[in-house]
């Protein structure tokens, strides 16, 4: 930017650093009025950010809780499968033992059925 040259004496004229134009005064006046909403806007933005942070923490907590519950469900499901297998194994063993006991009882004379009519006569 060139400074205006005073043609009469060849010196530079001074320029005021303060802009006293109507536009400058209006900007200055409205900047004071707008300062409060800007501060409020910053406070609102801070509140929104804090709310977003709380929501993010809540989502993270819920996700962790869901994952923990999924792992628990997987563990319980595996345990149920193991118990089912054990139950089938025990049922099979009970059938074998039941058959063995029946065979022993049929082979023993103690457990033979007696005809009560023939003994009474």
Structure commentary:
There is one protein chain. The protein is built from 2 helices and no strands. 75% of the residues lie in helices and 0% in strands. The chain is mostly helical and 121 residues long. It is rod-shaped.
Map the helices and strands:
Layout: H1 22-107, H2 116-120
Largest sheet, strands/sense/barrel: none
Helix/strand order, N-terminal first = HH
Count of helices?
2
Structural class: mainly alpha
> What's the pLDDT, averaged over the residues?
77
Short description:
By secondary structure, the chain is mainly alpha-helical.
Task: Please tag this protein with its features.
mainly alpha
